[in-house]
Write a structure and sequence with these properties.
By secondary structure, the chain is α+β, with helices and mostly antiparallel strands. The protein is built from two helices and five strands. A hairpin with a 6-residue loop joins strand 1 and strand 2.
Amino acid sequence: MSRGEIEQKARLSRQEAARWLGELARAIGEGETVEVALSGAPVTLHLADELECELELEPYGDEVELEIELRWRAPRTARSTEPDRPFARAARP
C-alpha cells in the first residue's frame, strides 16, 4: 500500500453488507462529499460530478472476489485547498 492510502477490512453478514453498500450509494447520490468507513475511522471524500466505475469478478477455487472500483478527479475546490489530499480523515470524538 502506498503512502496516503487507507485500507479497511471487515467480515459482514449479507444483510450488513447490503445495508453498508446502500448507505454508501445514498451518500454518493446526495452530495459533493461522502463520509465512508468500513471498520476504522471515517474518511471524508470530495466527489466529482462524474465517476469512472469498474466491476471485476474473479473466481478463486471455491471463493469469489467481487471488486467495485470508483475513480474520479478530485474536484477543483479540494485540489486547490489540499493538492496532495483528495480525502481527509474525520476527527475522532
